[in-house]
Amino acid sequence: MTLDYGEPDSHGVPTVLTPRLVLRGWQAGDVADYLEIVTGPGMADHTPQPKTDAAAWSQTAFQIGHWALRGFGMWAVEDRATGQLLGRAGLYEALGWPGCEVAWTIRRERWGEGLATEAGRAAVEFAFDVVKRDGLISIMTADNTGSIHVATKLGLTFDRAETIQGGEYSIYTISRAVWETSADGRPA
């Protein structure tokens, strides 16, 4: 997929258009919708999620700040046809994190539509083509079969188990070389 870029937002966050999604910078109006998404059934089974308005606000502010400090981060993911906020996807590398992570969280009622894969593929392409990273990781619990499926569709493979912030996680990786030599230059 070759990314289509729209205008950056007021914070300099690039907008990325995929066939079904708009990946864009976070806005204050996203906080309530994002909290509704992440407090839904099963959404905190594998990844800690904010549980209050204040926590969702803090996480949104963190996402905006991550872009300012790193030059990349997590986008708000919006349905291109309806404008509905679907979740988040992008890159994450907080201080002390084991690498530049590609990650995604999509509204549960939209699971199974390939939206996480579409958003994740855009984030991987952005990481290699724009940010110029040599490798990426994705971190998930060993029983998170949905995210493992997305990671493998993106070309990431299991690398190791690791304890991170007191929890046991599986680390999946992909290198720039693997990404560039995949079918049509990108994993299918």
Automatic annotation (TrEMBL):
Keywords: Transferase
Domain N-acetyltransferase: 20-157
InterPro entries: Acyl_CoA_acyltransferase, GNAT_dom, N-acetyltransferase
Single annotated GO MF: acyltransferase activity, transferring groups other than amino-acyl groups
Transmembrane segments: none
Pfam families, per database record: Acetyltransf_3
SUPFAM superfamilies referenced in this protein's UniProt entry, alphabetically: Acyl-CoA N-acyltransferases (Nat)
This protein's name: Acetyltransferase
The species this protein was found in: Frankia canadensis
